[in-house]
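INTERNAL AUDIT FORM
Audit reference: QA-55
Scope: verify that the stored structure record matches its stored sequence.
Auditor: D.O.
Record contents follow.
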Amino acid sequence: MDRIWSGVTAISRIAVWCGGIMLFLAAGIVTAEVAVRKLIPSTIGFFESLSSAVGATALSSLFTSWQDGFRAFIFSGSDEISGYLFAVGTSWSLAYVLCTRGHIRIDAVYGRLPLKVRGWLDLLALVFLGIFVAAMVHRAFDVTATNFLEYNRSNTNLRIPLAWAQIPWLAGFVLFALALIVSFLRTGLALLQGDYAKAAETSGVATQDEEIESELKGLGIQRPHH
């Protein structure tokens, strides 16, 4: 089970890197659209005004048509593409958050309980989370399968087949569900064996020292051990 957990964690780490790249791409597309929409119309408008000032009516009309065409078509699919990237990038990040216990933040009372009690509460929490994830995967699969079989396309100028974006989006939820199952099994086995430290390491709230260690590791700083 430890090997399976390590494998799922490694896969989720790759997925979260890919998801982060997608989010950066989405942000880049939106930024480029805003910049271009501001810069090009202003440039065309300048030449349009200049043409009108010198009496070049035909040229002025040409610049006007270019400006209208630009507003209608340039970057017309940026919102759609960035939306797909954001959705897929988010779903691909969920498993890593679970594996690193980044989804647990409410611990005011929890931290005062015995380690054994915390372990069983963590297992119960995974059950409730599993119910939610199962419903989410079911609905995502239903939507993706329907659009794949019916070959539905987006109602935009790009007319992208919706399944192209929804299949990788669904894959992120499936990976999340897989990580949740392995986390549940590893936690349950550890509790049955009386290894409450391993149970806490799998699904419990990260201690302050563990969070500091993780942050330092992310920064490439080696913390001295005494």
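Auditor finding: record pair retrieved intact. Residues 2-53 form the longest helix (52 residues).
Action required: none
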